[in-house]
Amino acid sequence: MLRSLGSGTLRSLCIRRNRSLPRAFSSATRYLEPPAADRVPDRVPLRKQLKQEAKALRSHKRQRKETAEASKEEWELTVGVEIHAQLDTETKLFSRASTSTSDVPNSNLALFDLAFPGSQPVFQAAILLPAIRAALALNCEIQPVSRFDRKHYFYQDQPSGYQITQYYEPFARNGYVDLYDYDGIAPEDGERVRINIKQVQLEQDTAKSQEYSPTTQLLDFNRVSHPLIEIITMPQIHTPETAAACVRKLQAIVLSCGAVTTGMELGGLRADVNVSVRRRGEAPGEHQYDGISGLGQRTEIKNLSSFKAVEDAIIAEKNRQIEVLESGGVIEGETRGWAIGSSETRRLRGKEGSVDYRYMPDPDIPPLIIGEDLLSSLKDTLPTAPDALLTLLVGSEFNLPIEDAKPLIELDNGARLEYYHDVVDILRSLQVDQDDKTRASLLRVASNWVLHELGGLVAKHDRAWDTEIVPARSLAHLIDQLQRNLITGPTAKLVLATIFDGDRRPVPQLLEEENLLLRPLSREEYVALAESVIAMNPQMVEQIRSKNQLGKLGWFVGQMMRTGEKGRVEAPKAEQILRELILS
Ligand SMILES: Nc1ncnc2c1ncn2[C@@H]1O[C@H](COP(=O)(O)OP(=O)(O)OP(=O)(O)O)[C@@H](O)[C@H]1O
Ligand SMILES: [Mg+2]
Ligand SMILES: [Mg+2]
Questions:
Q1: Are 518 and 567 in contact (CB under 8 A)?
Q2: Which of 77, 78, 289, 352 is the best mutation target for the ligand 1 pocket, counting ligand atoms within 8 Å of the beta carbon and taking the most?
Q3: Ligand 1: nearest atom to the Cα of 300
Q4: How far, in Å, CA of 305 to CA of 338, rounded?
Q5: Looking at the predicted complex, does its ipTM rise above 0.95?
Q6: pLDDT tens digits for range 123-169
Q7: Could you give the CA distance from residue 437 to residue 422 in angstroms, rounded to a whole number?
Q8: What is the spatial distance between Cα 62 and Cα 19, in angstroms, rounded to a whole number?
Q9: What residues have CB less than 8 Å from 213, skipping those under 6 apart?
Q10: Cβ < 6 A, ligand 1 pocket
């Protein structure tokens, strides 16, 4: 390790950016300028000018949309994605240095990670566990023998001048991911589309650059050589929506099997999209990829960090390529960039080919041999896949609507689902005396409370999810009391908020001490309450009666709950009395 070098040396590593490097330019405002002919003279008042600009922008957008719609039929889009995901490991790929990135910059490094002369790679076998789990979850064939190669390029984020990757013989091949309509694929893809995965390979991550000033970049090498998997799909995606759905699904799968650190939002996963178009009904394109021929020239948009960016960047790049081709131009093989909020991709550099990278087998790293015993034990312990979980949750046992089942699975890396199961288990034990139908209906009620009531509080207060915010036991008791009509819905919500704010009294005790248990109102009390709200709102009563506006009854129920004694008015009973008094 580098401790002996003195941490100051490494922590202050920074390099000066070559001033002649092309600077990123902002294209975000480009379409705010109206065409030259419409340009507004200086003396036009600002408000009018802004109005005209907004009008020009709208008409430009409309034109683009119309062009896009018209060309949709005429042009076929093809997309292949590459995902880079950080494996959840303790050490780096070829050294025992820690993968923790939260420590001070440049503190987690071994000599090899910085390519010090004389240092040697030492493959860390434990990183294979999450890597193989991910590949199995993606239905890949794990290769008994695979090898590492050097991919050469020169940039500040890679100290050795090459990245160690698996180019010729990756450790996993021939997988697939199934995307369903509920994953958000484009309607034209029907109920299900299968995207084949060409391979999954192991490789090193790069250092993190941070702009310090326009001419200076700071470098943090903590991330360098963090083990990554690169997942490469075949060019079989034909719409931007399906591409975004594919990235979302790949992320969900590798997260659900515990293979990777975090999702895109926290930077643990990044996507590159490769985009080409070809005119339908014309001679097939000249390009091919791994047996798929007839493709157009691809460009690659690197480093997308959100699903929306994936979709937006593909739309923009597709439109750009169509515009170029329709005006007689040719598409260059390029690496392009995408800035959040932008409307255009922008050229970064010409696309490197395998020749530019001068791939060569790494002579310092022996072949990777993966034994059957390791494989079968990993297969046996692979957690249930998201699709299988979904089938279970919407199936006859849980009977959840798909709109609830999906977020339950996807939220908080599976922690929300685990919490839901805890609530359900406790609830089942509290409800042993109830009939099967009641107990079954509570599974749906519980998901509603976990997702919408508790989830709503979490979102409103912008808190990170934590199972202890409201212990599963408390929520289960709350639902149990509600189901037994011992408290009203509003009381249950009130108590939930109290627990959310930190009250740790057991629910039965809390209800008792705060005098929140339902003391049912008598029929006479309901009638008196209803009559008083009716008397105060004669016009609304008239509207309900004359125009049959029954929806307004709900408003009266709300009034009764507000004016009645807290926690004692039950909505169904209130509505019943209102119907009797107003409608009969
Ligand atoms: N003509 C094409 N149109 C659209 N996508 C394509 C086309 N040709 C290849 N692809 C996609 O481009 C990706 C190529 O990834 P691969 O890692 O094999 O090569 P690369 O992009 O040159 O490598 P890297 O970017 O890692 O240096 C795949 O996802 C593939 O499906
Ligand atoms: Mg690649
Ligand atoms: Mg690529």
A1: yes
A2: 289
A3: 21
A4: 10
A5: yes
A6: 999 999 999 999 999 999 999 999 999 999 999 999 999 999 999 99
A7: 20
A8: 39
A9: none
A10: 78-82, 232-235, 272, 274-276, 287, 289, 295-296, 298, 300
